[in-house]
Amino acid sequence: MLRLLPLIALTGLLISAAPTKKVTLFNGKDLTGWKIYGTEKWYVDGGELICESGPDKQYGYLATEAPYKNFDLSLQFKQEANGNSGVFFRSSIEGTKISGWQVEVAPKDHDTGGIYESYGRGWLEQIPPEKETILKPGEWNTLRIRVEGDHVQTFLNKQPMVDMHDAKIGAANGSIALQIHDGGGIKVRWRKLVLKEI
């Protein structure tokens, strides 16, 4: 005899089977969905998103117009010149002052994949020396950032870098933002920025 599940149970099954929403943050053509902060250079070339120091040699940010709280973000970057940059999450920006948390993107031996809190506690998690060999200078690298509640995980070229919990992060919300560090001489290429909302 065939047993029929109650409607509530069926509804629960449908909800749990719903796919996560995938968002392509960069369309490969222009900066639709993003906002520039500061005077540094952000442009598209050959389907890639380029950030480059401008004549002011100051901090610059390119932030999503939409906020993202819980997500799994994957992107690729290639460092040219200095390559000191980063990916902020749950951030807010006024002028060129940013509040939030940065997943570091930097030259070798400078903690790429680590977590830094700007205008706050500073480094929350740095990278141990044995993991500094995971970065491929001058080549395409894949960075994955997963943030759910107070839990943050980062992966560089499929290798785990950070796995931490933080109550302050858990209480926050805000945009994704790419950074140009101050000092000049910086150029980084980005592509394949795909986010899955959790």
Automatic annotation (TrEMBL):
GO terms for molecular function: hydrolase activity. Residues 1-17 form the signal peptide. The keyword rRNA-binding does not apply. The keyword Signal applies. Residues 23-196 form the 3-keto-alpha-glucoside-1,2-lyase/3-keto-2-hydroxy-glucal hydratase domain. Keywords: Signal. Gene3D superfamilies: Exo-inulinase, domain 1 (2.60.120.560). It comes from the Bacteria. Pfam families: 3keto-disac_hyd (PF06439). This is DUF1080 domain-containing protein.
